[in-house]
Amino acid sequence: MSNVIKVAKHGEMKNGEARSVTVDGTPIAVFYVDGHYYALADSCCHRGGPLSEGTVDGTKVACPWHGWEFDLVTGACETEPSARQPVFEVRVDGDDVVLVLPN
Ligand code: FES
After folding, report:
1. How far apart are CA 78 and CA 62, in angstroms?
2. Cα(50) to centroid of ligand 1, in Å?
3. Which atom of ligand 1 is closest in space to residue 47's alpha carbon?
4. How far is CA 30 from CA 9, 15, 26, 42, in A?
5. For a pocket test of ligand 1, which of 43, 51, 63 has the largest count of ligand atoms closer than 8 A to its C-beta?
6. From the CB of residue 18, how many other CB atoms can be counted at a distance below 10 Å?
C-alpha cells in the first residue's frame, strides 16, 4: 500500500518553481524543472532551512539559509558530502501531480 497525495495540477507549476506540502507534519518540497518533478524533504538537514524557498539551478537547489546545495534527483549534498536529504516519489497521475509515499 502507498499513500498518494495530490500536490498540484500538471501544468500549473512554472519551470523552476517549488512548493511545500505538509504530510503528517512533515514538510516536503516539490520542484518542477524542465518537464520533471522532484521531491525532497523541505527541512534542510543542516539547520532546517526551507529548501522550497531555495535557489533552483538545473537539478540543484541551494538552501536559502546557508547555501548548501542538494541534488534534486538523489538528495545528495554537494557542499557537505556526508549530508543527504530524503527524496520522495512524485509523478503525474492523469491531470494531477502526486506524491507517492510509503504507508
Ligand atoms: S539550514 Fe540549509 S544550509 Fe543551513
Report:
1. 10
2. 8
3. 1
4. 12, 12, 13, 8
5. 63
6. 23
Ligand 1 mean position to 10 CA, how many Å? 30
pTM: 0.95
Position in ligand 1 atom list of the atom nearest CA 67? 3
**Residue 10 confidence (pLDDT) above 90:** yes
The binding-site residues of ligand 1, defined as CB within 6 angstroms of any ligand atom, are 44, 46-49, 63, 65-68
What are the tens digits of pLDDT across the range 62-101?
999 999 999 999 999 999 999 999 999 999 999 999 999 8
Contact assessment for residue 54 and residue 46, using Cβ atoms and an 8 Å cutoff: no
**Do the beta carbons of residue 50 and residue 42 sit within 8 Å?**
yes
Strand partners for 59: none
Ordered domains of the chain (ranges, CATH): 2-102 (2.102.10.10)
